[in-house]
Every structure is written in structure tokens, then in C-alpha cells.
Write a structure and sequence with these properties.
The chain is 33% helix and 12% strand. The protein is α/β, with parallel strands linked by helices. A hairpin with a 5-residue loop joins strand 8 and strand 9. It starts with 14 loop residues before the first strand and ends in a 31-residue tail after the last helix. Bound molecules: iron/sulfur cluster (SF4) (2 copies). The site of one iron/sulfur cluster has 12 residues, from loops. The site of one iron/sulfur cluster has 14 residues, from helix 12.
Length: 381
């Protein structure tokens, strides 16, 4: 089938998120990777990834994010970037920076990498290294931030904001300015994966959020159009309408996990659905025909009040994973919505923010991966 054909009115995926490994040197307690990491034992080979990239591009995908875990841990990253660029993808590396060196960034530049998004855990070494549970990671991130500029990439930073660092948001903005960042996402954590497990520790109070937002607005007012653009993302737990999750299930985004599972969003594996694997099906067949991808397309699955709601084209009933995590039923209206009969769940959670947690903080664990067949990196000096 030719590119851009849309069987049954289904639009092709535009964004491909390639989670090339769940391995990561950091252990962030808010990591969105699955709590159950068994997939790390069965990573896709280089040839598998080439096939995925080719098929996604043939279907019309244009944006590609290399993510993880820490994608720098795959020695074939440069090869995959170069392959993706030849196919015509715009390529983005989403990284903690741990494992990056000047040699490596030079090779990635040569391979045609378009964009790097560097994450920080906080604005100082003590809190940064404590949250990531790795010593000297802050120092390393500062070095990488300089290399990102030196190699003429736009400087795009991501700070995960939690109850542990929200009081330091002004320091975060000052550091971003010092590093000459162009765009900075101040992203309060969304509660999936490890973040869901650790929510009692991570969820800021409403007062903390309001204070942080006021600080961001004051900072912006003093910038006089100069310095980084700050984007402040509040957790939807405090909202009255859900996010338009993935721009609608199976409309735009496609995620491939390290073991080859194809998902409409990166956390969908928690749902009681069976998801297909690219090892034994083509992406085209999966996207257009698989039961799981078709399951929440359109509005025929919707319960009341979504089914008759005049906002259903805006938010598609919210996030299926959130509905499942918070109500035990993936078909329910996202409880973030004030029209949901389950909205009281949100209040009972947010009312407890700031209370003493009932269980210990869990750092993200990771098991060792079984080596996979990788194409050796021939660009190495
Ligand atoms: S959130 Fe932290 S632990 Fe998870 S992949 Fe990113 S850097 Fe690694
Ligand atoms: S009822 Fe459903 S469709 Fe309407 S605003 Fe709430 S989540 Fe969105």
C-alpha cells in the first residue's frame, strides 16, 4: 500500500518513539518505564530496528524519538540515527546525558542527529544526584549541556519537577539561563510506571504548585523576551479536564518498546489488552488492523458522560492508562474530569499530598539485559 493511504479512515502514525533499551545508569523514582522490567531481557537487534524504521517511514511517520531507558547505552545508536536520517526522519535523542562523550556527540552529529533533549533531576549536584541515585551525574550533565551548544544543537532541557525539587524552581530557571538553554520544560511528573508507585513522595501540594507557577511567571516577566522559553507543565491530578492523551488513541503516536511490542502510548502495556510485536507482524498490519490499536479509536467505546459530551473531540475521554490505574477499569472516563463519577478519587489523592508517605521511596531498578545482535559501530575512531 502506498504512503498516506488511510484504510477505514485511520490516519498513519506521524511520531515514532523508539524505546531502544530500558537499561539506564540512573534510577529515578519517577521513571515512566514499566515497574516490571522483564522486557530488558529481550532487546531488539539492529536489523529489527532498521525494519521498524523503514516500515514506519513508508507509512508516513516523520518524527522519530530515540528514547529509553538511556539510548546512549546502545552501541548501534549512531548507526540507527544515520539510517533514520537516510530514510528522511527528523531525529531526536532523549537522554540523561550519562554515557555521552565528545567523541560520541561528534559521531551523532556526523550521523545526522537533528535534536537532543537533555534531562536534569535538579539545579544542584546534591538534589540531582540524590534523585537519580547516581553520584557525579550533575557534573556530567553540565559537561554535556556545554557540548550540546558547542555542536550547534538547540539547547532543550527537561527538568522533572516533584515535591523534592519544586521549591528550587527559581534555581532551575537560573541554571537554564546560565547554560544558554533555548527551551526548558519544567514538567511536573505524571503518575505512571515508577512515578505511580512513588506518588506519595512525589506529588506536590496545590500550594507548592501555585507558588512554583507564580515564580515561573515572575521570572518570565523579568526576561524581557530574552533567555530560555520556559514551559511549565502541571500534573493533571489538579486539573478538571483530562489531557488529550496521545492526541487520541492510535491517531498520531506509535511506540515500540525494547522487546518489540507496538503500543499506542508508552505506558499502554499496563492495560489488560494483548499488544502485538514487530518481530512477527508488519507495522502496517499492526497499526491498521490490530485489535488493541482499534480498540479505543473513535468514540464507540466511550461510556457516559463522554459518549454524549460536547468536549469529546477535544480530549477523547482522557487517558486510558490513568482510568485503569485509578479506577481499575480502562473503559471509564478519566477521573481527572470533573464530569466523571470517579472524580472524587482525584480529590482524595491530592488532599493527601504533603502527608507523611506510608511506604519507602523506591528507586527504579533494572535487571541486566541479555546481549543482542548489534551491528558494530564502524564510525569509531
Ligand atoms: S527517568 Fe531516570 S531512570 Fe528513567 S530512563 Fe530517564 S534517566 Fe533513566
Ligand atoms: S466527560 Fe469525557 S469527553 Fe467530556 S470533558 Fe470529561 S473526559 Fe472529556
Amino acid at each position: 500500500m502506498a504512503t498516506n493511504e488511510t484504510p477505514n479512515g485511520i490516519t498513519p502514525p506521524l511520531w515514532l518513539l523508539a524505546e531502544i533499551t530500558y537499561q539506564c545508569p540512573l534510577h529515578c523514582p519517577y521513571c515512566s518505564n514499566p515497574v516490571n522490567m522483564e522486557e530488558t531481557h529481550n532487546e531488539l537487534s539492529t536489523e529489527h530496528w532498521e525494519r521498524v524504521l523503514k516500515q514506519a517511514r513508508d507509512m508516513g511517520a516523520v518524527q522519530l524519538g530515540f528514547s529509553g531507558g538511556e539510548p546512549l547505552l546502545r552501541p548501534d545508536l549512531e548507526h540507527l540515527v544515520s539510517y533514520a536520517r537516510e530514510l528522511g526522519f527528523y531525529t531526536n535523542l532523549i537522554t540523561s546525558g550519562i554515557g555521552m562523550t565528545e567523541k560520541r556527540i561528534a559521531r551523532l552529529k556526523e550521523a545526522g542527529l537533528d535534536h537532543i533533549q537533555l534531562s536534569f533531576q535538579a539545579a544542584n549536584a546534591e538534589v540531582n544526584d540524590l534523585i537519580g541515585n547516581k553520584r557525579h551525574s550533575f557534573e556530567q550533565k553540565l559537561k554535556i549541556a556545554k557540548l550540546v551548544k558547542q555542536y550547534a544543537y538547540p539547547m532543550v532541557l527537561n527538568f522533572c519537577i516533584t515535591a523534592q525539587n519544586i521549591h528550587e524552581i527559581e534555581e532551575v530557571m537560573a541554571l537554564s539561563e546560565q547554560l544558554n538553554a533555548d527551551f526548558v520544560e519544567l514538567a511536573t511528573v505524571q503518575y505512571y510506571g515508577w512515578a505511580y508507585e512513588n506518588r506519595e513522595h512525589l506529588l506536590p501540594t496545590s500550594a507548592q504548585l501555585q507558588d512554583a507557577e507564580a515564580k515561573v511567571n515572575r521570572y518570565r516577566a523579568h526576561q524581557a523576551g530574552e533567555g530560555p522559553t520556559f514551559i511549565f507543565v502541571t500534573p493533571d491530578y489538579y486539573e478538571t479536564r483530562p489531557k488529550a492523551c496521545m492526541n487520541g488513541w492510535g491517531t498520531t503516536f506509535l511506540t515500540i518498546t525494547p522487546d518489540g511490542s507496538a503500543l499506542p502510548c508508552h505506558s499502554a502495556k499496563i492495560l489488560p489488552l494483548t499488544f502485538p510485536n514487530i518481530k512477527n507482524r508488519s507495522l502496517q498490519d499492526i497499526w491498521y488492523n490490530d485489535f488493541s490499536f482499534n480498540h479505543f479509536r473513535g468514540d464507540s467505546w466511550m461510556p457516559l458522560p463522554c459518549k454524549t459530551c460536547d468536549e469529546k473531540e477535544k480530549d477523547f475521554g482522557g487517558c486510558r492508562c490513568q482510568a485503569y490505574l485509578l479506577t481499575g477499569d480502562m473503559y471509564k472516563t478519566d477521573p481527572v474530569c470533573s464530569k466523571s463519577p470517579d472524580h472524587h478519587v482525584m480529590k482524595s489523592i491530592t488532599d493527601k499530598a504533603g502527608d507523611k508517605p506510608t511506604k519507602a521511596l523506591q528507586y527504579r531498578k533494572v535487571e541486566r539485559a541479555i546481549p543482542v545482535k548489534l551491528i558494530p559501530d564502524t564510525t569509531k575512531a
